[in-house]
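Before we proceed, please read the two lines closing this message. Report back on whether the structure tokens fit the sequence:
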Amino acid sequence: MDDSKILDNIKETVRDDLRAEMKRGSRVSVAAACFSMYAYEELKKQLEGIEAFRFIFTSPTFVKERTEKQKREFYIPRLSRESSLYGTEFEIKLRNEMPQRAIAKECAEWIRKKAKFKSNVSGENMASFMTVDTGEKQMVYTQISGFTTVDIGCERGNNSYNFVNRMGGSLAQQYMQLFDNLWDEQEKMQDVTENVIENISTAYAENSPEFIYFMMLYHVFSEFLDDLSEDELPNEATGFKQSKIWSMLYDFQRDAVLAIINKLEKYNGCILADSVGLGKTFTALAVVKYYENRNKSVLVLCPKKLAENWNTYKDNYVNNPIAADRLNYDVLFHTDLSRNGGTSNGLDLNRLNWGNYDLIVIDESHNFRNGIGTHSNTHENRYQKLMDKVIRSGVRTKVLMLSATPVNNRFVDLKNQLAIAYEGNSESLDKCLNTTKSLEDIFKQAQKAFNAWSELDPGRRTTDALLHMLDFDFFELLDSVTIARSRKHIEKYYDTNKIGKFPERLKPISVYPDLTDLGDAINYNEIYEQLMQLSLCVYTPSNYIFPSKFQKYKDLTHNKGENLTQIGRERGIQRLMSINLLKRLESSVNSFQLTLTRIMELIRGRIDAINQFEKDGFTDIAIDEANGGDWDMDDENAEFFTVGGKVKIDLADMDWKSWRAELQKDADVLELLTLMLTDITPEHDVKLQKLFQLLDEKICQPINSGNRKVLIFSAFSDTAEYLYDNVSKYVKAKHGLNSAVITGSIDGRTTIKGFQASLNNVLTCFSPLSKGRDVLMPDSNAEIDILIATDCISEGQNLQDCDYLVNYDIHWNPVRIIQRFGRIDRIGSRNRVIQLVNFWPDLTLDDYINLKSRVETRMRISVMTSTGDDDLINPEERGDLEYRKAQLKRLQEEVVDIEDMSDGISIMDLGLNEFRLDLLDYMKCNGDMDKKPRGLHAVVPAADELPKGVIFVLKNVNNSVNVDDRNRIHPFYMVYISTDGEIICDYLNPKKLLDDVRLLCRGKTKPIPELYKCFNRETDDGRNMAGTSELLSEAINSIIDVKEESDIDSLFSPGGTSALMSPVSGLNDFELICFLVVK
């Protein structure tokens, strides 16, 4: 009789037919693309009774990899064939009911008893079919593409029809003959039974919590892994990994180099904002090496004080540790951008082809954060010139920015730095980013959120609150173009045994010396009172020009092409000078006296000129510049006033009588001050004597055995030289140790006879290990133990042989203090502990800060009344007094990291980058997780604030939920739900959830028996998952509810609504990736 029949898989299904036809003792053979354990589950009763089951995978599946991971297009279909063991994409619903553990266990047992699997490795195509031989009757089913619930008719799948032919008799026998022949061909078939069992066992094995954490990361960031396309990954063929510099980098620096190159290729720009002390210079040099190997020309733009540093690495000098790499970049200074000619660092600026650089590295790029059209026009100029001369003109320039402080408290700072990379045309970056909004909008929204956040009351002003307010595009942007790692991060994710640890920071020592020990001498407060009376009108002659003559001078500018008027400039000098007097008084009596004398001479000169004019009736006065030595060398404004020629004013055009009277008043105050200070000689300078005492203690009782080195910082070169004159004699006489001084304005000096005291030589003998003295100065054993310096070495130097740092004057910007400390507080230090010492003025902190604000306010008022324009020169010194007070207070108690300083945020808090790094690290050791089944779980103990419940990771399969772009990790959704169904953390905060999961799982590399046994008892070993399945439905409903809520919110918010755009229907829209049970 003819057994032929067509099964339509709707009314008559293959499953029902097989249930009827398969008898005990039957032999079943299948050749198909895939095998699903859910199909086994449907026919379990029949399959348990058959004698044998043979299965051939028609394409290579579960075979041993003969080659590296095949090209992606071949790899993906093979993957889906292999993963269909635990259900295909059309069996999501079955997986979400979570029976897979129980089914997998039974299926694996059955395979061990009855089944054999082979895979076709011949590369030839094979058609799919299935035969059943009951002994009495043979049947073949053709056009059955896989052994899954869809193919046997239990699920619809996405087929428009799913007909299967069933035939019997001789046709069936021919097919059986064909199957037998194939089965026996050893060249074409490989036995994969063990691999199938092993793979299916992973679906019911107990998993370690850490494995589930990485599984989550793998899925959430898998697209990120695909993003690392070949063109944007560093091209190894350039040989940069064979370079000397590469061999000197730590792992974390190498990771940064590769990431930077990827970002430069993809987005044209990158900000490296690693924390102080993590060696950004070396990381950047390796990037430079990569591009130079590709014949690109490179320019390094750095502050003048770092020039020596950068020059060393490119010149063929003995003291260049990477001379073998023959780097060949140009080095220029930030200030060169505002110069119109002359030479700088050996380059002729007139002939320089600014537009021809392929890569520009900007060191300390935060100096460019003020962009165009803000406070001062030199900056405007500098920024604009960088844009016009270097970036926009000529070849397409990539920009790498190095900065330890890219965000101050305005996101605009970050935007301005990024603008350098995208040539000021944000659309070019918009195209590369996969954000929905444009860059401009992203920053506007972020600043708005930040402003709203800063107005919250302190209790609610947490980083978390801010993260909630910022939108995801902002994070996407940061992840794309910044690399920021903190010390904590490096200690956590890298093997510090290789790198060496950071030294332990002892609690800072705070010293509050009096001004002097003389009984009747003046004290700080009295000096301040006198200072408040100064008008410093010597710097503002333009204030005294008669209104009728004003036009004559109005257009005079101090530098052709700059639009800062003479008046604006004078006011600036006046204001800076008043602040400077305070700073110098805090620094040292000596430095204060010098400045008083200089101002005094200037005033006398002016008064003499006016008296002369009164007699002869003719004189021009040239407006002299303030003396360069009076400026704190880091004051960005100093150069702002010292550029440009002199302007002559005719005294006849001035109200010289009033001016003379004011000048005379100032002269009297200065004279009085000078008189009061004359008695304070070094013997009576309490601050200096206190320093001697500290040096004695340190030298006689080192904090690390044998280490007698001390680094002393001052903001002013006058103070540094005064200290050197006194300290070097004292230490040499008492302890026989050598000292040296380095400032920006003079060559180094040292007590070693016949020693050439260049910056590099001095630093090399002060920190011989970190600077490689044995290589650079093989014949020298000169040792400098006490180094006195200004901020010319407060950035970019590695002086970690030293373990004791003194701030002889407190810098008004707390960040500077941390940067100074970063010279010795470095990764890989051989010192166990390090000490910071801060000298404070003899005042309470409140008085100190208030005083500063009084000076600022007073000067500001004089500026505003005279110009009607609140043109404050330096944004750094704008009113963040409360903020600065809080930071300085903290610095009295502990050494903080820059990223922990601000009440605001650091880039570190914002990115998801550390999770990606975690994942990459795991994959280096453990390979891919492609083949792991979905729906796995682990059980972890609950922790504080992380109560019992389940954390689900789901994937949205129809792409409909994220229309309003609120979910950063779309199409993945994470929800944390407690055992009683309350949502602990919803899907809109994945950063928090990932942090929680990391906390719960990290380091737990083995399953926890007491917990999983308890869970298995509750669920009858996975057979009864109703409770967890119920929580899963709740979790999915919460996604839909939160979505609807935010849709409803969006109805009332500007910018349109996301409501009605995307219905989410529930369970079938989501696939369960994995879950973590918190017990």
About this structure: The longest helix spans residues 589-616. The longest strand covers residues 1070-1078. The mean pLDDT is 78. The radius of gyration is 37 Å.
